[in-house]
Specification:
Layout: E1 6-14, H1 19-40, E2 43-49, E3 63-69, H2 72-76, H3 82-88, H4 92-105, E4 106-114
Helix pairs in contact: 1-4
């Protein structure tokens, strides 16, 4: 609905043995960018979970990051990250190398917009 929070789950599947490196790089380089967007009011919340146990390889994922956008319109808008990146990462070359590494580790990544389901009706 217009003006309502818009929720997206982002799933990340890392190469076997590299999940810890992936999340360390995510926390170091991407999470601060998301936190800035929370401070700006674009995002309402950012959370993450990992499965306690592993599943089959075809259904395996290592981390699910849930981002709650202020609304669907904000989600659809392109955000200019350049001012945030300049502020947070003065050594831009190092940031770019680490982000490249984070994506090299990934086997798969998918985004799933989700809606709540009222189980009482």
């Amino acid at each position: 609905a217009q003006g309502q929070p818009f929720v997206v789950d982002y799933y990340y599947k890392a190469r076997w043995g590299y999940a810890n490196e992936f999340i360390a790089l995510f926390k170091k380089n991407h999470y601060p960018v998301l936190k800035k967007q929370v401070e700006m009011g674009r995002l309402l919340q950012v959370t993450a979970v990992a499965p306690r146990y592993h599943g089959t390889e075809d259904g395996r994922w290592d981390y699910r990051v849930t981002i709650v956008f202020r609304d669907a319109a904000v989600h659809a808008q392109e955000v200019d990250l350049e001012p945030i990146l300049r502020e947070l990462y003065p050594d831009r070359a190092k940031f770019e190398r680490e982000e490249q590494r984070r994506f090299e580790i990934l086997l798969a990544h998918w985004d799933v917009p989700v809606v709540g389901v009222d189980l009482t009706r």
